[in-house]
Design goal:
The radius of gyration is 28 Å and the shape is globular. The protein has a domain of about 110 residues. It is built from 17 helices and 4 strands. Helix 7 crosses helix 9. About 65% of the residues lie in helices and about 0% in strands. By secondary structure, it is mostly helical.
């Protein structure tokens, strides 16, 4: 007989102790360690890719080596959209205003001067929105602000070293004072956020403390009146939020009293300035900013845009349909306003008119809906959780949307400022909502946690 056949009844080959004892089982709740998937490392790679994306879109676009980084980062985020679809796609659905302009741009390929340009721009606009939603869903707001802070700090330091001049002002490493000024404003706003956020490390807050006066100096040297107003507004909101609004939460009805008092002072001040002193606020502001009544010929451009929209109300001219070398009117405008002998890329200096000319009134109102959604969504996020990080994103959203009335940020693909606005809006999340969302199942479930 074999050894198995000679064993007494009741005995088992799985025993490891005394003869006939029960087999050793793992403790209740024990789960064997699973080999880690490559997808589990995405949470560590995401901040790096956001930094690369920010660097490739916020630093000067004429630096050719940044283009491959930009497209590589866009491909990474698109792949992440697929792999983490259960987490990112619902957020993308809630951010549906981001898709309006890409859809209109793709449709305009049917009548645009260049169908290939329209398709390329439409896809690029869509990728811009995807990048923002992915970053807002997968990364903490604090990490996003830190990434943009370091990128703009690099731009500021390089501008101090290179000190490029243009248009009678400091332009640093950029090709215009307006571009330089807005990037230094973002450096200032993110520096304030990093400094005021007590959850950041001391060494990081120390760097931000030094960066704040540096950013203010660079904004002043850029001689941009509009950006100076943005700095004043950002300072009032963020410093007031940290030093006044948050401490008032410990005083019964303190915030209500402060809000009512502020509104009364604003109304009273407006009455004194307009009703009693009869000061022309528009003229005074323009004089303080060093601009004429035409806003440096912008009003003339807007009148031309309105006429073009009236001629093509439903379809527009198609993507990139107006500012083209073969358009005689475009050449005339750039020659009269800028003094260029030949056409160089130009714009209507207004996101709403720019999209209105390209896509008709549907594009004009789609841009207005997008801007309103950005402000409203960022404000609701702050109301749900009035943290320093959320206040910083609210300030960035409000200030950058204000800029869209004189620049074409909302009509540009892969725009760094545009992505910041989209991130600020896409971070909206209901309190109590689970922050865990599994990715695609490859035999085991992997949870991707979004940090608060």
């Amino acid at each position: 007989l074999s050894a198995r056949d000679r064993m007494a009844p009741g005995m088992s080959t799985t025993t490891s102790g005394a003869m006939g004892s029960q087999p050793i089982l793992p403790p209740a709740g024990f789960q064997p360690e699973q080999p880690r998937s490559l997808l589990s490392y995405a949470s560590k790679l995401d901040p790096i890719m956001v930094f690369i994306w920010a660097a490739s879109t916020m630093l000067p676009t004429q630096w050719g080596f940044l283009a491959p980084l930009r497209y590589a980062a866009a491909a990474y985020f698109f792949l992440g959209l697929i792999l983490f679809s259960r987490q990112v796609l619902p957020a993308l659905g809630r951010a549906w205003p981001l898709l309006l302009l890409p859809i209109l741009c793709v449709i305009s390929a049917l009548w645009a001067p260049s169908s290939s340009e329209a398709l390329r721009k439409g896809i690029s606009l869509g990728l811009t929105g995807i990048v923002a939603v992915y970053a807002a869903t997968r990364l903490s707001g604090r990490n996003i602000l830190i990434a943009y802070f370091f990128v703009e700090l690099i731009a500021g330091v390089l501008s101090l070293i290179i000190r490029g001049q243009g248009q009678g002002a400091l332009v640093g490493i950029y090709d215009s004072k307006n571009a330089f000024a807005i990037h230094m404003f973002i450096l200032y706003a993110t520096s304030l956020a990093v400094l005021l956020d007590k959850d950041n490390r001391p060494w990081l807050r120390a760097i931000a403390f030094v960066a704040i006066p540096t950013a203010l100096y660079l904004v002043f040297m850029a001689k941009s009146g509009t950006t100076t107003l943005l700095v004043i507004g950002a300072t009032a909101i963020m410093v007031g939020h940290s030093l006044v609004w948050k401490p008032l939460s410990r005083v019964p009805h303190g915030r209500m009293f402060f809000t009512v008092l502020t509104l009364v002072m604003v109304v009273l001040g407006a009455y004194i300035v307009i009703g009693i002193l009869q000061i022309d606020i528009k003229e005074e502001v323009l004089a303080a900013l060093g601009k004429d009544a035409t806003l440096t010929s912008r009003t003339m451009l807007w009148e031309i845009a309105e006429r073009v929209m009236q001629e093509n109300p439903w379809t527009g001219l198609g993507a990139n349909g107006y500012w083209r070398p073969e358009n005689g009117m475009a050449n005339t405008i750039t020659n009269v306003i800028m003094g260029w002998d030949r056409y160089i890329n130009f714009s209507f200096h207004n996101s709403y008119y720019e999209n209105g000319v390209n896509f008709g009134y549907p594009g004009y109102f789609a841009t207005a809906v997008l801007a309103a959604w950005i402000c409203l969504s960022a404000a609701l996020t702050w109301l749900r959780n009035q943290s320093v990080v959320n206040s910083a994103f609210l300030v960035l959203a409000l200030m950058l949307v204000t800029r869209t009335f004189s620049e074409i940020d909302l009509s540009m693909e892969f725009s760094g400022t545009c992505v910041l606005m989209f991130i600020a809006a896409s971070r909206a999340k209901k309190q109590g909502q689970s922050s865990v969302a599994p990715v695609l199942d490859y035999g085991r479930s992997i949870a991707a946690r979004v940090k608060p």
